[in-house]
Amino acid sequence: MTIALTDPVALAQLLIRQPTVNPCDDQAIVALDDALRSLGFRTRRYKFENVDNLYARYGTEAPNFCFAGHTDVVPTGDLAQWSVDPFAAEIRGGTLYGRGAVDMKSSIAAFLAATARYLEHHEPKGSISFLITGDEEGPSLHGTRRFLPAVIADGEVLDHCIVGEPTSEDDLADIVKNGRRGSLNGVLRATGRQGHAAYPDKAANPVPKLLDALAKLRAMPLDEGSPGFQPSNLEITTIDVGNAAHNVIPGAATAKFNIRFNPKHKGDDLMARIRDLVEVDEGGVNVRAEMRVSGEAFYTDPGAFTDLVLAAVEAETGRRPKLATNGGTSDARFIKDYCPVTELGLKNDTAHKIDEHVAVDEIETLSRIYYRVLERYFQRS
Fold it and tell me: Where are the alpha helices (DSSP H) in 101-168?
């Protein structure tokens, strides 16, 4: 590899130039594998259903500090709306453009460069590892969810982890995530019997039963928040009947909903409550709920680990970031079962957008923050 491994911007360009739209042939993971091997890491690839995943470790002793990220990206959308080639990794006026520049190839590059710099000057009193998946932006079935248990089964132990998701809002590193809400997606299906609107006794209208079920859902008490978290919320996202006629009672109706829940709830418990509440079979109408939990809520208690990360940011930027738990889900929801985890990355304002971009100096600053995290972590060990 001809790129200097201590140069986070050049590394980000290398990764962005691999068009790893999920699902993909993940050449970005191939490039990372090569780079980490050249630094002395032992690497192992885990492939499930054509999804490539990479675990790499430098050192054999505890504690094992892990960086987690994903190389897959979302589709580009209409290429005609881009002002640049989304996979050319072009720099204009101090700004790097490309799909994955924010979410999250530049963060991976920043941590890789920080690690390379750290190893030039130090031998860690422990281990540094990378947990990189190619399936975070898609179904997330064959990435970290499946990959991490396989790594653990192979005898690896993670002691602490940072995920490089774009957590920052107004300024770089102003937010460190120490938790995320869980997410439950549900579909209510009401099945009745189609008929003429003038003869309701000869039909079974599913719409009123569906509306009753939705009213029960909306009235279902959740909570008023928990430490570090806002109250859980339920949102009805669509109601569909597909009936174009005024004089036809439909045979079926559906609605979709989403619940973002804090650690006061477990997904299985919520699903059981919902089924007890809304599932009925009466008046010729059957109402059933189909649900899936895409991630449980998690929370890393503020303490020595979060303090270390906050202090590293403050030492580099002069600003003390805030701990937060808002936003969507990330692969930290799987990692939290194995070790304390936080998230720290670039500003998220252009993630998934046309002309996704990040300032070059912010990639470099993030890399220096990660370097300070490594210094502080192994000084403490």
Answer: 105-121, 144-153
What is the tens place of the pLDDT at every residue in 326-367?
888 899 999 999 999 999 999 999 999 999 999 999 999 999
Q: How far apart are CA 152 and CA 172, in angstroms?
A: 33
C-alpha 223/C-alpha 260 separation (Å) is 11
Q: What is the DSSP string of 176-230?
A: EE-EE-EEEEEEEEEE-B-EETT-GGGSB-HHHHHHHHHHHHHH----S-BTTBP
Which residues touch 237 (CB under 8 Å, ≥6 apart)?
Answer: 256, 257, 258
Catalytic residue selected from 52, 136, 137, 156? 136
Q: Any catalytic annotation for residue 136?
A: yes
- Rounded Cα distance between 95 and 364, Å, is 12
Q: Is the pTM of this model over 0.70?
A: yes
What is the tens place of the pLDDT at every residue in 158-189? 999 999 999 999 999 999 999 999 999 999 99
Clarify whether 337 is annotated catalytic. no
Q: Which tokens hold the place of 104?
A: 């999250």
Q: What is the pLDDT of residue 381?
A: 56
Quick one: tokens of 213? 């079920």
> Is 55 in contact with 78 (CB distance < 8 Å)?
no
Structural domains present in the chain: 8-180+298-380 (3.40.630.10), 182-295 (3.30.70.360)
The closest alpha carbon to 300, from 343, 266, 329, belongs to 343
Residues 6+ apart with CB under 8 A from 207: 190, 241, 250, 253
The residue from 72, 137, 165, 362 that is catalytic is 72
Sign of CA dihedral 224, 229, 234, 238: positive
* DSSP H helices in 235-359: 267-278, 304-317, 332-335
Distance CA 315, CA 244 (A): 63
Query: How many residues are there in the chain?
Result: 381
Give me the amino acid identity at 133. T
User: Each residue of 181-238: pLDDT tens digit?
Assistant: 999 999 999 999 999 999 999 999 999 999 999 999 999 999 999 999 999 999 999 9
